[in-house]
Amino acid sequence: MSDKLLMKGNEVIGEAAIIAGCRHYFGYPITPQNEIPAYMAARMPEVGGVFVQAESEVAAINMVLGAAAAGARVMTSSSSPGISLKQEGISYLSACELPAVIVNMMRGGPGLGNIAGAQGDYFQATKGGGHGDYRLIVLAPATVQEMADYTVQAFDLADKYRTVVMILGDGHIGQMSEPLVLPKPTGKTFDKSAWSLTGAKGRDQHIVRSLLLYPEDELEKLNIRLQEKYKLITKNEILYKTYMTDDADYLLIGFGMCSRLARGACDVLRKKGLKAGMFRPVTLWPFPSAELAKAAAGKKKILVIEMNAGQMIEDVNLAIGCSIPVDFVGRMGGMVPELETIVERVETYVK
Q1: Does one domain contain both 45 and 113?
Q2: What residues contact 20, with CB distance under 8 A and at least 6 apart?
Q3: Each residue of 59-72: pLDDT tens digit?
Q4: Which residues pair with 117 in a beta bridge?
Q5: What's the domain count of the chain?
Q6: What percent of the chain has pLDDT over 90?
Q7: Spacing of C-alpha 13 from chain mean position
Q8: Beta-strand (E) ranges in the chain?
Q9: What is the pLDDT of residue 208?
Q10: What local confidence, expressed as pLDDT, does residue 1 receive?
Q11: Is the peptide bond before 281 cis (omega within 30 degrees of 0)?
């Protein structure tokens, strides 16, 4: 008897968050992630949790800050324009070193755009959409199973480093249904007693704040501590996947949905006698630069595939030092690159 379930990506994120111990969810409806708050509205009362549909995305992210400051495992979710509205709060969370999980099911932009899946928020997620010197751990699942697995992992990473972790998906993955095995709780616990606001019961008070008015004595010291933390994350938390890269002449690179296209194109190209392999960053930040450089060594050409104007190309070129020609296939505004287009582009490299 199979233990697999058939679930929609957005709903899987909600269930995985509950498995991870999340009992506080604050959100606001926006397509194409609406199944997440809808699912949490039904499930949270069943597990003794708290669900609040806030009056806006701005309100929701500040509710997240409050729950995180109290030591709770907390999550919010939205789609591209809604995430833009949350950026100030994300910066505050980062300055206060508070753990939280944020889900962005990307849609077409810029502006209000449309409700089709896209990948145009790569820069926002990986380069910092708000103000100040801060970073987010950014995880990019490519399957519904990974939606579940990486959501559970995101909560542990958030608590381990006292940082914000973003699940960066897109409307297509959020809306598709696939079989999966629900993950088990990791059982990891993190001591939050040294900083969480649980009431000063016979102990010194804790103060969680981001307003530090003295540049040298306060704010620069915070920034130095943050940068040291980000170096540690970069050292320890790189995730990536490869497919037939060892003997490949051509390396296809994509994240999330586009990695599925890249893998399919590799299979077609191999049948045509062209040695193609795939490299997929799972952590978009920290980006697997050293690992990509190693996988790209000796390759004739690299093809980056994205549902945007080519945002990840910057990180690819930084990783390989512009030592290998890099080409690009992409669609924008909610359009998905066609597998046939990818195959035909690689075929031109040998003509």
Answers
A1: yes
A2: 73, 151, 152, 154, 155, 156, 185, 186
A3: 999 999 999 999 99
A4: 107
A5: 2
A6: 95
A7: 12
A8: 5-8, 24-27, 50-53, 74-78, 100-106, 137-139, 164-170, 177-180, 240-243, 250-253, 276-281, 283-285, 301-306, 326-330
A9: 94
A10: 42
A11: no
